[in-house]
Amino acid sequence: MLVGAEVVLGLFLSYIFYRSLCAIIGHYRIVNILKKFPGPKSHWLLGNLHQLASPKEFLKSYHSFSLKFPRKFLLWYGPLTPVLSVSHPETIRAVIKAKTIKDGPAYQYFIAYRFLNEWVGPGLLTENGKRWSRNRRLITPAFHFDVLKPYVHIYNEALDILTEKWSNPDRLHKPLDTFYDASLCTLDVITRCAFSVEFDCQRENVKHPYINAVRTITKLVTERPFNIFYHSDWIYSITSAGRKFYSNVQLTHEFTENVIRKRQGELSSSHDDGSKMKKHLDFLDVLLKATYENGEGLSLLEIRNEVDTFLFAGHDTSSSALSSTLYCIARYTEHQDKIRSEVDKILACKEEIEWKDLPELKHTSLCIKEAMRLYTTVPIIERTLERDVEIDGKILAAGSQIAIAGFMLHRNPDVWDDPEKYDPLRFLPENCGSRHPYAYIPFSAGSRNCIGQNFAINFLKVAVAKLVYRYYFTVDMKNNLTFTAPLVLKLHGHDIYIKERNN
Ligand code: HEM
């Protein structure tokens, strides 16, 4: 009996030894290949973390590295984790076409998605493999044009509330916090489109516990990567930030589950698809109707994860893109005037921008695209190679970490003429013909591109058009423009003012 136990223990230890040896050899192979790539000087222990370790310095340092190494360079996140940053369309194409996952070792510094798991679970943004592809197929109909069309009315209504707020005489002559206001406006829109609940958060600010919780979680998740002690879930859970995070996550879960259960009840009692009860289908209706091949629907937990994912992936991104565009047109007013003249024609004898008007907002669209190039909303996304892949003539080992640096790609002087210049006309069709298909990827590219991009672009067009129709925007450059990242870009160092138009 004892001999049997010894054999089992021996086998177990040999197995552990074998697995550890494989991991060490695998890691050695990854490092050995990656260390041949050029990169900024790194500290033996910290790697490049000390240059990247504050929200303010992160993009500035990153960008200065990429000016030295415009195609790709190696960063060290600590002594053991090399990450290859890529910022050339050809190199990015190779990574996006390769088999990759959105995951990495726990010690990897900027894979902030793992900090999201507690909230959004394995939703579309964070899931990998077969489960991701099945869910992506099931969820894609939620972004079909027919579903998106009625949302244009919701965008208009949310913008009317924003202008009602901004036109308050107390606010008119003060600098605006465009990111904050845009963020409440997008929350208003996304909660109505996701599950048809009206929080009126723009008027109520963050008084509603659910809205307050969503905003608190988003803030904490963005801050967490920058505090090395917070990387451990256990340590985080005993800090005040961690306790705040977990209690807010619980609150949002309870809220979302209640909404889902209520809707499930309504659907089963009315035996319709929900469209008769409301003016439009929302994401939740589509998710509840989504069915696997075997006839099973998405579980309550899966639906909750997806609804929370839409909230996270959609609200700060859209507000970042909106506030960057407002900054750009406030700075380059000739483009504001052009937008105004195209909106004036549309709103000459009506109050609302309709679905059919969206293609007419041509200059508006150019201005948004260029703002999202220069101030890339999601500056960096990360991937881990699942298989060995050839990139720029070198075979990278499975397990290598790659950072797709959209912000750097969009300012790469080898790709863009005069990259620091805000020039919306570079997106005119006649100026895009020879552009590399991976030169401009604000919504990422390939099979894991942003599922919400049409939703976001439609919202941005309506928002910019309605705001420019109503106000003149100007900017006071208090300081040099700075950015914070890493998850979503935010601009600092300037004040935006508005003056009401007499339409
Ligand atoms: C201006 C606004 C937006 C920008 C710039 C943006 C950008 C991106 C980017 C870069 C990715 C790839 C992330 C990665 O691979 O790690 C992504 C993925 C995603 N986005 Fe967006 N997004 C925006 C708005 C939205 C909206 C409004 C929604 C939903 C309502 C949304 C839902 C998603 C989801 C679910 C994914 C994951 C897709 C997948 O992996 O299959 N996004 N987005």
From TrEMBL:
Which Pfam family, just one, is annotated for this protein? p450
Q: What InterPro entries does the entry give? A: Cyt_P450 (IPR001128), Cyt_P450_CS (IPR017972), Cyt_P450_E_grp-I (IPR002401), Cyt_P450_sf (IPR036396), Cytochrome_P450_Monoox (IPR050196)
Q: Which CDD domains match?
A: CYP4B_4F-like
List the cofactors.
Answer: heme
Which UniProt key words apply to this protein?
Heme, Iron, Metal-binding, Monooxygenase, Oxidoreductase
Q: Which Gene3D superfamilies match?
A: Cytochrome P450
Could you give a GO molecular-function term held by this entry?
monooxygenase activity
Detail which positions bind heme.
450
Q: Which family does it belong to?
A: Belongs to the cytochrome P450 family.
What is the name listed in the Swiss-Prot or TrEMBL entry for this protein? Cytochrome P450
